[in-house]
Amino acid sequence: MLSKRLLNFESFEVMDILSLAQKLEKEHKVIHLEIGEPDFNTPKSIVEEGIKSLKEGFTHYTDSRGILELREKISNLYKNKYKADINPDNIIITGGSSLGLFFALSSIIDEGDEVLIQNPSYPCYKNFIKFLGGKPVFCDFTVESLEKAISNKTKAIIINSPSNPLGEVVDKEIYEFAYEYIPYIISDEIYNGLVYEGKCYSAIEFDENLEKTILVNGFSKLYAMTGWRIGYVISNKKIIEGVLKLQQNLFISAPTMSQYAALKAFEKETEKEINNMIKEFNRRRKLVLKYVKYFGWKVNNPIAAYYVFPNIGEDGREFTYKLLKEKYVALTPGIGFGSKGKNCIRISYANSYENIKEGLKRIREFLDER
Prior knowledge:
By secondary structure, this protein is of the alpha/beta class. The mean pLDDT is about 95. Helices cover about 40% and strands about 15% of the residues. The strands form 3 sheets. Strands 2-8-7-6-5-3-4 form a 7-stranded mixed beta sheet, sandwiched between helices. It has a 3-stranded antiparallel beta sheet with strand order 9-12-11. The termini are far apart. Helix 3 crosses helix 10 (about 255-260) and helix 11 packs parallel to helix 13 (about 355-370).
């Protein structure tokens, strides 16, 4: 008999869609606009550094905190970008940002604690919270909504900015309210850097001493390193010591070659590739928005990450599966991200411009044929 904890876990619908799309792909060309993974390969300098580390024998465990060189580079990044006094002891390297997020929640959540999350938001948040015995509380990210959602059981809020699935950034007033009234702010900043208009805040800007902040980030999205499984957590020393215990017992350390490879993410030779990737993402974003507006769908303000989350005016799940089976275009139903996504779909533009254009044309045909 499976544990009750596991039975409460819901499947990640985007992976269910992917599975169906892959079955159909045996006979048809499927356009993948469902997966939240950069289609770009990891920059060459990063790959070469990973290979070099293997050839030089770096195939053993590292310190459970992560190699000092990488923690120093992350520390310098936040010092230079945000003028924050973050030192390597405030950082622990994890096997991906998802693991970092799970560690972050594990370090503070007790049975019955409530965690505020945006509706809609990344599906794993609610699963992690429930698994740890906490209660996810969905709300709009407005001050009025947050005021109503807070209770004496509120332990934390998860702020994901830039956001999956919305592609939006969180307003300054939300951070200010959270830091005044909520014990812990878990800031998921995995899409930080993928911003095409306006300003995106980091939690570090509101809490330089890390009294309330548990910041989670990594290399998967901005540096196209999803398969390398390399992330990190930044917080005060008490939280980091707690996360360290979890790391030591559950995973020992993050992948060694991935840690050494990530050192090259901070080099100027990598920066050029990343900037070109960002420009291309923005070009794709504009293409998707052009079609979405032509379809007459209501759309939010997606200025970051690589998602557009339109309201299509009908059940998004029915639309998504019908489209996949008839036109072989894979999208993600919005309901998987929260109740407010029921009539929405998530379009990921982490695919080539040509494939996205073809997918959008098929959607237009699908709508015209109805």
